[in-house]
Design a protein that fits this description.
84% helix, 25 helices, mainly alpha, single chain
Length: 560
């Protein structure tokens, strides 16, 4: 449905056909999806200028989304409720829902800025029709501000603002607004797309008696109502010719409008203009005829009723805002009460916990005092026995002194013997160190022999691999992936158990592990491996320890 919604912004007829194809499947979905479908249908019908027959569906959608919808969905449903009531000519409800839509957009973190701009545009039009020109000007200002922020069409907001200023007799502000629209049109680069906007400017500049600006607009207009009739162009041409004092042309276009027109507002202006012309000429019959037509149109438009409706909806919406503020204050007051109750309960709970801890500590100290008293009593009871024991020990001490004197002589002899033995141990230690040095040299010789043996075996079985390794260790060549694979294959043929030992000992090993351990297996020194792999010295030495344990376990397995 989101794709259909996007298509509907440019081609609502096609989008409605696509939406209708989903109708059967949608009815099997949950309530949210069904209501989103109905809201999209109302949106597309509004864009296609299809007049609704009733407000039953939009009433249901308002109830659902205002209860369960997000702020964006509330903005959308109230906007299209305003559109529905606007098309049903229920001005008070239309005004109320458009105002609600702007309120939801302002209060939400995320809103549809284009929809908000259109809401202000509709509010401007509705307020203007009920002669509330101050609010019409305010809505046009908001519409223009959003259009400038979103960099969308600013011509229409300028026209709305200028028209409202004309009604408020603010000539300078109206001219500034119309000049802004004219500047956008002339800088657009395609005048043909703005013919209808130029017609509005022509009419408005003529009303404001701006002859030079009206003449510029007239020169850019390629449309003529004689070839293709439309209400407003006739009125715009009539106003321009009135400015130019071409009365016959004014009469012609006004009569054409009254004969073929359908828009009551333009027909009202045309009859009023014809009445003024014939009244100034002294043509009483025609003046009376168009005066009656002027009064009929005036009664049909019912300006007094429209003003009353506007005041009513403003008061109702203000009451809605006041009620909302009152509810917010009540909620805040209730929240404060709840917070205070939580604080009091927490304080009482902490006091209880502190009292319990105090009682437990007091009991623990009392128990310690009782224990110490018992211990003191036990010590006092055993004091006499302790004195008897001391006397006995003193006698034993005298005996020990005599025995000690005898032992001192024996100890002197032992010290002499111990000194002699220490000297012999020192001689044996020197001899042992010499043997260890000889053993270490033998081990190094054996290790070197084994490395040479590995290199010899590799050279005999994989001469091309050995050549690549030598070139790489001398810095003349970098080992390629193919060279490493041939090295692995050659080592695996010589030592089938080596790869298995690596995996069993280390688990998951990296490519760098494989390279270092395989180079060690063929007998390369640590310095050669360091030059080939460019790893740190500490890493090579640490991996060499692991390699020795692997090779030792591998050799032990092979021996078995």
């Amino acid at each position: 449905m989101e794709r259909i919604k996007i298509i509907g912004d440019k081609n609502p007829i096609k989008a409605l056909a696509m939406l209708d194809s989903l109708k059967i499947g949608i009815r099997k979905e949950n309530n949210y999806v069904k209501n989103k479908y109905d809201l999209l249908q109302i949106r597309l019908n509004d864009k296609a200028d299809n007049i609704p027959n009733s407000d039953i569906m939009i009433k249901h959608l308002i109830g659902y989304f205002e209860d369960k919808g997000s702020m964006l969905e509330k903005q959308e449903v109230t906007y299209y409720a305003g559109s529905v009531y606007r098309d049903l000519r229920d001005t008070p409800r239309a005004l109320g829902y458009f105002l609600k839509s702007t309120e939801y957009a302002k209060n939400g973190n995320n809103c549809d800025s284009i929809m908000l701009r259109n809401a202000y545009s509709n509010l401007n039009d509705l307020y203007y029709k009920v002669q509330n020109y101050n609010d019409a000007a305010k809505m046009a200002q908001e519409e223009l501000k959003i259009a400038q922020q979103t960099r969308t069409n600013t011509i229409t907001p300028y026209l709305h603002l200028g028209t409202a200023y004309i009604a408020l007799n603010k000539t300078k502000e109206a001219c500034d607004a119309f000049d802004g629209a004219f500047e956008v049109i002339t800088h657009s680069g395609d005048i043909s797309k703005h013919q209808s906007d130029l017609l509005y400017l022509l009419c408005d500049y003529s009303v404001l008696m701006q002859h030079s600006k009206a003449k510029k607009c007239f020169s850019l207009i390629k449309y003529t109502p004689l070839n293709e009739f439309s209400d407003f162009p006739c009125m715009a041409f009539a106003k321009y010719y009135e400015l130019c004092n071409k009365t016959d042309s004014v009469i012609f276009y006004c009569k054409l409008l009254l004969d073929k027109g359908t828009d009551i507002y333009n027909m009202y202006d045309a009859s009023k203009l014809l009445y003024q012309i014939y009244s100034d000429r002294g043509d009483i019959n025609n003046a009376e005829h168009y005066a009656r037509a002027y009064m009929q149109f005036s009664d049909s438009m019912d300006f007094g009723k429209r003003q009353e409706l506007s005041a009513t909806v403003n008061n109702e919406f203000q009451y809605h805002l006041d009620q909302k503020k009152e509810q917010t204050l009540k909620d805040e007051k209730e929240q404060y009460k709840n917070t205070l109750a939580i604080v009091v309960l927490t304080t009482i709970l902490l006091a209880c916990v502190a009292y319990i801890m105090y009682v437990r500590r007091h009991n623990r100290h009392l128990q310690q005092m009782i224990s110490l008293s018992t211990e003191l009593q036990r010590v006092a009871t055993g004091e006499q026995q302790l004195r008897k024991d001391i006397e006995m020990k003193e006698e034993e001490l005298e005996e020990s002194k005599k025995s000690l004197k005898k032992s001192s002589n024996e100890l002197s002899n032992i010290k002499l013997e111990l000194k002699r033995m220490n000297e012999e141990l020192a001689e044996y230690s020197e001899a042992l160190k010499a043997k260890e040095r000889q053993l270490s040299e033998k081990i190094d010789q054996n290790t070197t022999f084994i490395k040479l043996l590995h290199q010899s075996e590799m050279e005999s079985n994989a001469e091309d691999v050995i050549y690549a390794i030598r070139q790489s260790s001398e810095g003349k060549k970098n080992m390629t992936s193919a060279d490493w694979k041939r090295l692995y294959q050659a080592v695996d043929e010589l030592y089938p158990e080596f790869n298995v030992s690596l995996i069993r000992k280390l688990g998951n090993i990296t490519e760098q592990h494989m390279q270092v351990y395989y180079l060690m297996r063929i007998g390369l020194s640590k310095h050669q491996i360091l030059d080939m792999t460019h790893l740190s010295r500490v890493t090579i030495w640490r991996w060499a320890k692991n390699y020795n344990s692997i090779v030792n376990s591998d050799d032990a397995t092979t021996t078995e």
